[in-house]
Structure formats: C-alpha cells, structure tokens
Amino acid sequence: MVHAYILIQTEVGKSASVAKEIEQIPGVTQAEDVTGPYDVIVRAEASSVDDLGKQIMSRVQAVEGITRTLTCPVVHF
C-alpha cells in the first residue's frame, strides 16, 4: 500500500469546498483545510504509485478551485 500527502493551493475562498469535494474521492482518507502556504492537506492511499496517479491524483487535480498541488509519497527508511 502506498500512502501520500497531497498539499494543495486553492483560489481565494475555495479551501473548504475543495476539501469537502476531495474527501469524497475513493482512496482519500482525510482532507482538511489549513492555514499557511497550502490551503488543503490530503492523506491518500492506493495499491501502487501508478494507482495513486491514475485513480486519485487525476481526480484531485480536476476539482474546481485548485491552483497547484504537490504530492509527497510516504517513505519508510
């Protein structure tokens, strides 16, 4: 299982609606609007890195109001 954090910047005033919509995407385990350089932080999981991109990231990036995303896969050393 691959886990990742997705850091999202949104248009002004859109963070709550973006987080609410993203939370409905299968594979997203948590989506919260936050303060700081990013507006929404998402925790997601998929069976592989490819599935993370195909099944989750493609849907996240299609959400209206998002201006930029940064995906950070979790690694275990």
Low-pLDDT stretches are none
Strand order of the largest sheet: 2-3-1-4
CATH level-four homologous superfamily name of the domain at 2-45 and 57-64: Lrp/AsnC effector binding domain/regulation of amino acid metabolism (RAM) domain
Portion in beta strands: 35-45%
Tell me about the largest β-sheet.
4 strands, antiparallel
* Beta strand count: 4
Please describe what this structure looks like.
This protein is an alpha+beta fold. It has a domain at 2-45 and 57-64: Alpha-Beta Plaits (2-Layer Sandwich), CATH 3.30.70. The chain is built from 2 helices and 4 strands; from the N terminus they run βαββαβ. It has a 4-stranded antiparallel beta sheet. Strand 2 and strand 3 form a beta hairpin. It is globular, with a radius of gyration of 12 Å. The model has no long low-confidence stretch (mean pLDDT 95).
Question: What is this structure, in a nutshell?
Answer:
This protein has 77 residues and is an alpha+beta fold.
Please specify the SSE layout and strand pairing.
Layout: E1 2-10, H1 15-22, E2 28-33, E3 40-46, H2 49-60, E4 66-73
Antiparallel strand pairs: 1-3, 1-4, 2-3
